[in-house]
């Protein structure tokens, strides 16, 4: 398991740092243990929470305030100032070290994040570019082959997509939220060679 220097809430990995440093402001709870022990920071005990960050989609271990109530799928503030329910961000986790319950909830919560952040993901469809002369980055999303890719490119040349429903109505592509969520899940679980949505 990768270990991260978490005492300063900077998500920095031993031996190197992510540059530039960008901090999650919000995270969604995947699982929590009321009287747990951190798997990252020695001697840290209390409400141990496994969560996924909203912006960078990284898996995180959080320390919650003991007398607060938490629920699966809840969005909690983890930014620098004004935390109400979270004491600290203990560090980042990889997929293999989150709880089984967190793994079970992950697809559902990812879909929720995609829906809440629709503009962010529709912007991807409006701006995605070719990776090579033969492969377009749109094709990295499950369910998008050459036919749908061509339709998406043709339609966005006419007018940028405004929403998932606009994209679906104009191209015939269905279940856009689920397709994006599947790609994000595959990136988080290590099933992809490169990431287009999840920060490494």
TrEMBL record:
Cross-referenced InterPro entries: DUF655, NA-bd_OB-fold
A UniProt-annotated Pfam family: DUF655
Stated name of the protein: DUF655 domain-containing protein
Lineage: Archaea, Nitrososphaerota, Nitrososphaeria, Nitrososphaerales, Nitrososphaeraceae
């Amino acid at each position: 398991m990768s270990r991260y220097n978490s005492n300063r809430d900077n998500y920095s990995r031993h031996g190197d740092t992510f540059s530039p440093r960008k901090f999650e402001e919000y995270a969604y709870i995947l699982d929590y243990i009321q009287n747990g022990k951190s798997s990252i920071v020695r001697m840290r005990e209390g409400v141990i929470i496994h969560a996924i960050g909203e912006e960078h989609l990284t898996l995180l271990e959080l320390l919650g305030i003991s007398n607060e109530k938490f629920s699966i799928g809840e969005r909690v503030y983890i930014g620098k100032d004004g935390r109400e329910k979270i004491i600290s961000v203990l560090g980042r986790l990889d997929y293999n070290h989150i709880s089984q319950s967190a793994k079970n909830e992950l697809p559902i919560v990812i879909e929720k994040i995609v829906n809440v952040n629709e503009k962010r993901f529709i912007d991807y469809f409006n701006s995605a570019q070719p990776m090579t002369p033969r492969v377009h980055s749109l094709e990295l999303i499950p369910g998008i082959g050459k036919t749908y890719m061509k339709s998406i490119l043709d339609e966005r040349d006419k007018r940028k997509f405004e929403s998932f429903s606009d994209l679906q109505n104009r191209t015939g592509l269905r279940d856009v939220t689920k397709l994006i969520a599947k790609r994000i899940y595959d990136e988080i679980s290590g099933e992809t060679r490169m990431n287009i949505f999840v920060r490494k």
